[in-house]
Amino acid sequence: MAHIDTGGGKGGRKVSLELNLVPFIDLMSVLITFLLITAVWSQVSMIQIGSSLYGKRSEQTPTPPPDADTVLKLDIRANGYLLSIGKQVINIPMAQSEYDDVGLVAQLEKAKQLYPNKVDAAIAMSDDLPYERLIRGMDVFLKAGFPQISVLTGGPN
Description:
The protein has helices at residues 22-53, 101-114, 131-144, and strands at residues 2-6, 15-19, 72-77, 80-85, 88-93, 120-125, 148-151. The chain is α/β, with parallel strands linked by helices and 157 residues long.
């Protein structure tokens, strides 16, 4: 404990003041701990970003498959499916108030024949449709041979 003692000159009272330094030491130990922890995390993130920030390429960088630039996207809408294969857009309307999953599978199988090395696809859905519709669309992609499925947010464009 810190102790300050002031003498009281000519008839004055003697003043004694004690400072409690324990809360100050506790605060400093917490701040130092926090500083050390955040310094470690910022250094780790700098290492991860720094390796790809400047576009360093090595011989071990995998080359993309030949069909990687072809876009395969499925928009699930309230009135049916809209399938985009590259620049080609195929509308698959609903049949008797049901989504035409069979027609979609047929179109995806044709796409698989055109692009046999393509394994990725994207899917988007309107926010007002049930979630089950998205799962069925993903199942159709898996059935047609497109296992790498990306779900796009914000609904169909």
